[in-house]
Write a structure and sequence with these properties.
The complex is a heterodimer of chains A (274) and B (232).
Chain A (H helix, E strand, L loop, with lengths): L1 H7 L1 H9 L16 E5 L7 E7 L2 E12 L10 E7 L15 H17 L8 E3 L3 E13 L4 H15 L1 E7 L6 E10 L7 E8 L3 E4 L3 H6 E10 L2 E6 L8 H28 L3
Parallel strand pairs in A: 4-6
Antiparallel strand pairs in A: 1-2, 2-3, 3-6, 5-6, 7-8, 9-10, 9-11, 11-12
Helix pairs in contact in A: 1-2, 3-4
Chain B lengths: L8 H9 L9 E5 L7 E7 L2 E11 L12 E7 L7 H17 L9 E10 L4 H15 L8 E8 L5 E3 L3 H6 L2 E8 L5 E7 L4 H33 L1
Parallel strand pairs in B: 4-5
Antiparallel strand pairs in B: 1-2, 2-3, 3-5, 6-7, 6-8, 8-9
The chains are: A alpha+beta (274), B alpha+beta (232).
Subcellular location (chain B): Nucleus
GO molecular function, one term (chain B): RNA binding
Keywords (chain B): Exosome, Nucleus, rRNA processing
């Protein structure tokens, strides 16, 4: 009976739960799904992480290659994040070139890296004007069950903290490049930005860490990226207008979540053996 | 890419002598600047200019059809080159903003398209795009739940805030925040940010932007009344 009710009137079904301040998956309104983090799971990549946020699964791998730096920024390397939402993760995606959502997510990741300044691009330089590292950050969604943005950020930051690059020497005279895979230097990541997403249900109820079903019923969404006590980004693309109190509440929760999540990353990094 | 701005001597003197900018740059609008569209406007805020046109409610592509409401489409054309992922993100933010603003349930199974052409970006381009789109929707007489007004605030390294920043203010600033307000309760509809900031800075920016949004709504009113007087 419950199944039919959910199919026929999904919104009413949700409302019945929310009246009792609980969600269909037994969560409180402000409760996150269990977060599972596995860092360094891909041995062939320079850095990697697997994140599970409830059912949502994101795999992140970082591959490094060398390239000539830009002529106007000879002392900087490149970071190229890419989010892939393939038909593997959900029936709503089709094969072919990346859709709008994947492009927006990739752009969000690039913006996050730029504004949080967690990697100094000059650290990626090998020989000014001649050689720099390019970090290809590939984020692949394996299971799409809502709140992909938070899972992507967590995977991205964890994988970056796990990245180590081999030492490269350039022969001044011949220009030969020598790589020494035995000496690995960990990439310095100065901060740990964490994103927290909310949706607005029925124009007034805020739900944290939405599942895909909840996202479909949402009348608005907001994502806040916090790092330490600072805010890296507030991203509220349209939807229901929120009062100032609701916005403050969101910021409060985002700051709290950022502490918890960076602690989780720290603990997981300590527990893996190199 | 070279770009020039012609500055009059008296303007330059005024700029150098002025204190912290707490007013919007001068706005001008040209409603119905194009003829084949349902609504069109060319809006400039200072030297930043964009053209927005609106078609609709019109026929919708079958795969985008929604049975209970109109589909809002936004196309953003940059001044040079082809649209890049950053423009896709901007399109998405603008679309989501207007999906809330347009009374879409009045026109099920139809499309309302907004096309924005950036003509000159001299700072606060996002605000200019939102404001010109809103004016174009008013020009096309599309039913809306509320109007929207966007205001950009730049936070400088020294803690000073600049309302409606120019391109130079934006590059010097440590972060740039854009707020979009609705016309009913002046609540926050959209926020996009670029650069780190603290909670207090967000709050101060909000207060400043909200005050300025009132003058944007006033500007809409004046533009529309001017247009209606002209057509009599």
């Amino acid at each position: 009976m419950a199944e039919q009710f959910k199919m026929a009137q999904p919104k009413e079904y949700f409302k019945k739960f929310l009246e009792n301040d609980i969600r269909p998956d037994d969560r409180e309104l402000g409760e996150f799904r269990p977060t599972i983090l596995n860092i360094g799971c891909v041995s062939t990549a320079e850095g990697s992480a697997l994140v599970k946020l409830g059912n949502t699964t994101i795999m992140c791998g970082i591959k490094a290659e060398v390239a000539t730096p830009d002529a106007d920024r000879p002392k900087e390397g490149f970071v190229v994040p890419n989010v892939e939402l393939s038909p593997l993760c959900s029936p709503s995606f089709r094969p072919g070139p990346p859709g709008e959502q994947a492009q927006v997510l990739s752009q969000n990741m690039a913006d996050l890296l730029r504004t949080s300044e967690c990697i100094n691009l000059e650290d990626l330089n090998i020989c000014p004007g001649k050689l720099s590292w390019v970090l290809h950050i590939d984020l692949v969604c394996l299971d799409y069950d809502g709140n992909v943005m938070d899972a992507c950020t967590l995977a991205l930051v964890s994988a970056l903290k796990n990245t180590s690059l081999p030492s490269v020497t350039v022969d001044e005279e011949t220009g030969d490049i020598k790589t020494d895979p035995t000496t690995l230097r960990p990439l310095s990541v100065s901060c740990c930005p964490v994103s927290t997403s909310f949706i607005v249900f029925d124009h007034n109820i805020l739900l944290v860490d939405p599942t895909h079903e909840e996202e479909k019923l949402a009348t608005g969404a907001i994502t806040i990226i916090a790092e330490g006590g600072n805010l890296v980004s507030i991203y509220k693309p349209g939807g229901t207008p929120l009062t100032d109190e609701q916005m403050e509440d969101c910021i409060d929760r985002a700051l709290k979540r950022s502490k918890e999540a960076s602690q989780l990353i720290g603990e997981t990094l300590c527990s893996i053996d190199r | 890419m070279a770009s020039f701005t012609v500055v009059k001597t008296e303007d330059l003197a005024a700029e150098q002598g002025k204190g912290p900018a707490c007013v919007l740059r001068g706005q001008t609008s040209d409603l119905g600047c194009l003829t084949r569209q349902d609504g069109s406007v060319s809006l400039s805020q200072g030297d930043t200019t964009s053209i927005a046109v609106v078609y609709g409610p019109a026929e919708v592509r079958i795969n985008k059809e929604q049975i209970d409401q109109a589909t809002v489409e936004v196309v953003y054309r940059p001044k040079v080159g082809l649209p890049r992922p950053e423009h896709r993100k901007q399109e998405r933010v603008i679309r989501n903003t207007f999906e809330a603003a347009i009374a879409a349930s009045l026109h099920p199974r139809s499309a309302i398209s907004i096309i924005i052409q950036e003509t000159e970006d001299m700072g606060s381009n996002f605000s200019c795009c939102i404001n010109s789109s809103c004016l174009a929707l008013l020009d096309a007489a599309v039913s809306m739940n509320f109007m929207v007004a966007a205001v950009t605030v730049a936070l400088k390294e020294c803690g000073e805030m600049v309302l409606d920043p120019t391109k130079r203010d934006e590059t010097e600033a440590k972060s740039v925040l854009s707020y979009v307000f609705d016309s009913v309760n002046l609540q926050v509809l959209t926020v996009v940010s670029c650069g780190k900031f603290s909670r207090a800075e967000y709050r101060n920016g909000l207060v400043l932007a909200r005050e300025a949004a009132k003058s944007v709504f006033q500007f809409y009113r004046e533009s529309m009344s001017k247009k209606l007087l002209m057509s009599q």
